[in-house]
Amino acid sequence: MAAARLSGTENRLVSLPLSRIRVIMKSSPEVSSINQDALFLTAKATELFVQYLATYSYKHGRGKEKNALTYTDLSHTAEECETFQFLADILPKKILASKYLKMLEKEKRDGEVREDNDEGEEEEDEDKAVGDSVGS
Amino acid sequence: MAERPEDLNLPNAVITRIIKEALPDGVNISKEARSAISRAASVFVLYATSCANNFAMKGKRKTLNAGDVLSAMEEMEFQRFVAPLKESLEVYRREQKGKKEARKDKDKKADSEEQDKSREEDNDDDDERMEEEEQNDEEEVDN
């Protein structure tokens, strides 16, 4: 069947599944419809983005010495490079739980105005990477 | 459409392949780095969609088109993507055109057969992909 053969060549043009890209795009409530060209371009752009993020982080990261791409390289990119700043929330810098506890203590000492009740919740995430509360 | 949170993830195998092809041979990509890039890619899609949608709204259009996505890239400071994207789009359009003509020929042969029926036949080979095109055939017109 001709259509089937052609969709094979389309596969080489873009490797991410268009159906999935469409689902992600449509999950944004304000979007009503997307034409096929826009869908294709977004998929292709996402591929370029993945390549760029990977190569940029590898080139500028410390993993290069060990011939590896690590999470730290990526979070470093999100923090340092303006273009990738929009990723800072989902690629937070990792810190040790012990370090985080010290920061909490310091914060407590610095600002006594803080509300008391929100601490219990925060401590639960301490061994994971913590995004927001670290920044300040 | 996105019923489960996993629906917003991109397939890991494909993401991994793209990363591997971009980096020099033999570079080890940690599992954490892979899933981080995958998440970043989903966020990129949402960010691009929202930017593109702003351009569509400015133009008082309801349907996102190629120009909106390209403008979004510039606004997001991914100008470097614009030229390669335009190139791929041209190839893609040519392919789609070829496909449409192939389908038209088939429809002629099928004579007065209802469109829905011939669509069903197409679906045999590549369900998802064909479904996509059907939804978009109408939208493509305003380009």
TrEMBL record, chain A:
<keyword id="KW-0548">Nucleotidyltransferase</keyword>
<dbReference type="GO" id="GO:0003677">
    <property type="term" value="F:DNA binding"/>
</dbReference>
<keyword id="KW-0808">Transferase</keyword>
<keyword id="KW-0175">Coiled coil</keyword>
<comment type="subunit">
    <text>Heterodimer with POLE3; binds to DNA. Component of the CHRAC ISWI chromatin remodeling complex at least composed of SMARCA5/SNF2H, BAZ1A/ACF1, CHRAC1 and POLE3; the complex preferentially binds DNA through the CHRAC1-POLE3 heterodimer and possesses ATP-dependent nucleosome-remodeling activity. Within the complex, the heterodimer with POLE3 interacts with SMARCA5/SNF2H; the interaction is direct and enhances nucleosome sliding activity by the SMARCA5/SNF2H and BAZ1A/ACF1 interaction. Within the complex, the heterodimer with POLE3 interacts with BAZ1A/ACF1; the interactions are direct.</text>
</comment>
<feature type="compositionally biased region" description="Acidic residues">
    <location>
        <begin position="115"/>
        <end position="127"/>
    </location>
</feature>
<keyword id="KW-0007">Acetylation</keyword>
<keyword id="KW-0238">DNA-binding</keyword>
<dbReference type="GO" id="GO:0006338">
    <property type="term" value="P:chromatin remodeling"/>
</dbReference>
<dbReference type="GO" id="GO:0016779">
    <property type="term" value="F:nucleotidyltransferase activity"/>
</dbReference>
<feature type="domain" description="Transcription factor CBF/NF-Y/archaeal histone">
    <location>
        <begin position="15"/>
        <end position="76"/>
    </location>
</feature>
<dbReference type="InterPro" id="IPR050568">
    <property type="entry name" value="Transcr_DNA_Rep_Reg"/>
</dbReference>
<feature type="region of interest" description="Disordered">
    <location>
        <begin position="107"/>
        <end position="136"/>
    </location>
</feature>
<keyword id="KW-0539">Nucleus</keyword>
<dbReference type="Pfam" id="PF00808">
    <property type="entry name" value="CBFD_NFYB_HMF"/>
</dbReference>
<dbReference type="GO" id="GO:0006261">
    <property type="term" value="P:DNA-templated DNA replication"/>
</dbReference>
<protein>
    <recommendedName>
        <fullName>Chromatin accessibility complex protein 1</fullName>
    </recommendedName>
</protein>
<dbReference type="GO" id="GO:0008623">
    <property type="term" value="C:CHRAC"/>
</dbReference>
<keyword id="KW-0597">Phosphoprotein</keyword>
<dbReference type="InterPro" id="IPR003958">
    <property type="entry name" value="CBFA_NFYB_domain"/>
</dbReference>
<dbReference type="GO" id="GO:0046982">
    <property type="term" value="F:protein heterodimerization activity"/>
</dbReference>
<dbReference type="InterPro" id="IPR009072">
    <property type="entry name" value="Histone-fold"/>
</dbReference>
From TrEMBL, chain B:
<dbReference type="InterPro" id="IPR051377">
    <property type="entry name" value="DNA_Pol-Epsilon_Subunit"/>
</dbReference>
<feature type="domain" description="Transcription factor CBF/NF-Y/archaeal histone">
    <location>
        <begin position="9"/>
        <end position="73"/>
    </location>
</feature>
<keyword id="KW-0597">Phosphoprotein</keyword>
<dbReference type="GO" id="GO:0006272">
    <property type="term" value="P:leading strand elongation"/>
</dbReference>
<dbReference type="Pfam" id="PF00808">
    <property type="entry name" value="CBFD_NFYB_HMF"/>
</dbReference>
<feature type="region of interest" description="Disordered">
    <location>
        <begin position="93"/>
        <end position="143"/>
    </location>
</feature>
<dbReference type="GO" id="GO:0031490">
    <property type="term" value="F:chromatin DNA binding"/>
</dbReference>
<comment type="subunit">
    <text>Component of the DNA polymerase epsilon complex consisting of four subunits: the catalytic subunit POLE and the accessory subunits POLE2, POLE3 and POLE4. Interaction with POLE4 is a prerequisite for further binding with POLE and POLE2. Heterodimer with CHRAC1; binds to DNA. Component of the CHRAC ISWI chromatin remodeling complex at least composed of SMARCA5/SNF2H, BAZ1A/ACF1, CHRAC1 and POLE3; the complex preferentially binds DNA through the CHRAC1-POLE3 heterodimer and possesses ATP-dependent nucleosome-remodeling activity.</text>
</comment>
<dbReference type="GO" id="GO:0008623">
    <property type="term" value="C:CHRAC"/>
</dbReference>
<dbReference type="InterPro" id="IPR009072">
    <property type="entry name" value="Histone-fold"/>
</dbReference>
<dbReference type="InterPro" id="IPR003958">
    <property type="entry name" value="CBFA_NFYB_domain"/>
</dbReference>
<dbReference type="GO" id="GO:0006974">
    <property type="term" value="P:DNA damage response"/>
</dbReference>
<dbReference type="GO" id="GO:0031507">
    <property type="term" value="P:heterochromatin formation"/>
</dbReference>
<feature type="compositionally biased region" description="Basic and acidic residues">
    <location>
        <begin position="93"/>
        <end position="120"/>
    </location>
</feature>
<feature type="compositionally biased region" description="Acidic residues">
    <location>
        <begin position="121"/>
        <end position="143"/>
    </location>
</feature>
<keyword id="KW-0007">Acetylation</keyword>
<dbReference type="GO" id="GO:0046982">
    <property type="term" value="F:protein heterodimerization activity"/>
</dbReference>
<protein>
    <recommendedName>
        <fullName>DNA polymerase epsilon subunit 3</fullName>
    </recommendedName>
</protein>
<comment type="function">
    <text>Accessory component of the DNA polymerase epsilon complex. Participates in DNA repair and in chromosomal DNA replication. Forms a complex with CHRAC1 and binds naked DNA, which is then incorporated into chromatin, aided by the nucleosome-remodeling activity of ISWI/SNF2H and ACF1. Does not enhance nucleosome sliding activity of the ACF-5 ISWI chromatin remodeling complex.</text>
</comment>
<keyword id="KW-0175">Coiled coil</keyword>
<keyword id="KW-0238">DNA-binding</keyword>
<dbReference type="GO" id="GO:0008622">
    <property type="term" value="C:epsilon DNA polymerase complex"/>
</dbReference>
